[in-house]
Prior knowledge:
Elements: E1 2-4, E2 7-8, E3 12-13, E4 18-25, E5 30-31, E6 37-45, E7 50-56, E8 62-67, E9 73-77, E10 87-92, E11 97-105, E12 112-121
Parallel strand pairs: 1-6
Antiparallel strand pairs: 2-3, 4-12, 5-6, 6-11, 7-10, 7-12, 8-9, 8-11
Amino acid sequence: xxxxxxxxxxxxxxxxxxxxxxxxxxxxxxxxxxxxxxxxxxxxxxxxxxxxxxxxxxxxxxxxxxxxxxxxxxxxxxxxxxxxxxxxxxxxxxxxxxxxxxxxxxxxxxxxxxxxxxxxxxxxxxxxxxxxxxxxxxxxxxxxx
Length: 145
């Protein structure tokens, strides 16, 4: 199954800051490149946008993949940070265009209900993104960021 969001003239498919989809992986779905049943969700992103895509299921171990505008898999996740069997991708869009969030199960043949969320987020500024000055005698020397 492929779900495409409504087109916007001159922009491609529309995307609100947050899209939530309730889906079911079942035996009638396409078998994806990973070998498991797969649902595909098409959306538009502009270059540099920070994307967060999550997939949660209480019925199977999720596998989430992100396909870029040129068709290649640009990111994937089996178990989101912090543990558990649900998936999360945080990725910056490398180019403007149409993307696909691919909802899969980690083990081939698994089926069941899931919730997939596609959203744009504001990146958190870390100390590595801030400028600062190191003076002679700073320890440890050399300082590696």
